[in-house]
Amino acid sequence: MDDRATYQALHDYLFENESALEISFAEFQECFPKKHQKSAEIKRLYQEVKKGQQEAKRTVVANLKSEYALVRGRPEDEEIKETLAVLKEVEQDLEPEYKHAVEDLVDLQEQLHTLEDKLNNLAEHDRPLKKAKFDLPALHDLKDRLNVD
């Protein structure tokens, strides 16, 4: 039987026999004298017992899961480590390209600022150009007129 089957068998056994571990309200009432069996205090105590049973069951399930993880050797962790290693390699491979892209972006921003400055200078000297909308064809036309590469 492999680890997963063992875990499942223990889990099933726990929940199949859960009724054997629990006490019914009638059985609980019988533990007290007849005159107190119908009191609200008995009902409240029974609810506390039920909560305790549920908490105990959750603890047992959590312990089963952690034991199962230890027995299995936690291959998920190995898979995560392998995935992180691959991602680190990809990041290292892409880092030079990223740096070049950032440098290109900075260069393009500088060129844009230069064009804006030249455009503003022209706009000061040429009134119709001042009213023109700055769209891409107008910038290309301006670039051709200025012979800017």
Give descriptors for this structure.
149 residues, mainly alpha, elongated, Nkp2/Cnl2, coiled coil
Structural notes for this entry:
By secondary structure, the protein is an all-alpha fold. Helix 1 packs antiparallel against helix 4. It is 83% helix and 0% strand.
Concise summary:
The protein is mainly α and 149 residues long. Helix content is 83%, strand content 0%.
Structural class: mainly alpha
Radius of gyration: 38 Å
What portion of residues belong to β-strands?
under 5%
Largest sheet: none
- Number of strand segments: 0
Topology as a string of helices (H) and strands (E)? HHHHHHH
Number of domains: 2
The low-confidence runs, each spanning 5 or more residues with pLDDT under 50, are: none
Mean pLDDT: 73
Number of helices: 7
Measured between the Cα atoms of the first and last residue, the distance is: 74 Å
What's the shape? Answer: elongated
Helix content: over 70%
How do the helices and strands line up, and which of them pair or pack?
Blueprint (H helix, E strand, L loop, with lengths): L2 H14 L1 H4 L3 H6 L9 H33 L2 H51 L1 H5 L4 H11 L3
Helix pairs in contact: 1-4
